[in-house]
User: What shape does this take?
Amino acid sequence: MFAVYGWTNRESVDELRVVRISAKEVAWLKEIWMRQWRRLPDDLELRVLVMDYLKERLLAISAKELGLEENDTVVRRRLAQKMEFLVQDTARLAQPTEEDLLRLYGSDHMRYQTPAQVTFNQIYFKAEKSAREGLNKTRMDSSAEIGDPSLLEHEFIRVDEQTIKNLFGQTFAEKTFSVEPGQWHGPVESEYGFHLIWVHKRETAHSRPFEDVRLRVIEEWERLQQAKIKEEFFAGLLKKYEVVADESVKHLIGPISGVTQ
Assistant: This one.
């Protein structure tokens, strides 16, 4: 405790350091308060905000002078995250031309197409044996009431394979897009149990006009642009710094530029 006291009172011999609190920072504190409470802080609340902010600044500066940020995973990741945010903000400044968007749309038009869809009914069974018995009953009497109680929807209209896969699993999804429409099929297994399925119709995938997917193309262009700028920035860092790896860990890093072999 005395060591800490002596350290905090070095100002008697060291040059006084300056910590500035600007009007811009106070305005930022007011804005944060406004977002949370939907009103401006009163004088007392504002004073508490400013003093808490000043305390945070002073503690952070003191911790840094003691080197407390070194080898701290949380601090390191937060600083890296802030740098990534800065790089992303730089990427957002760029605006695509119409030619850029059309080129991207043409190079990967399948990304923007409407996927194949299917309309079908399903009947749920807890056991495979019950499902087989149910299938035989439908062949003798198409109006027979079969199936076990379930919270699953009975009818699915124009759903794509990924949606079905997310709900029932890969095998079930593949069956709905492969069996002959117009009759009951099964049993088809899912993570819930077993099912009979009746496919009413299937619609093939088809391309969508550029204007219909323009916003999606812009989002994809921005994503690719951000990835490119981040990669270029990282490549620049590898040129700026010499990365020295121990012999025992070189194989984990691989032959990337900037690593001392």
The chain is about 50% helix and 15% strand. Residues 1-8, 255-261 have pLDDT under 50 and may be disordered. The chain has three domains: 2-70, 72-112+208-261, 114-203. Strands lie at 117-125, 155-160, 184-189, 194-203, 243-244, 259-260.
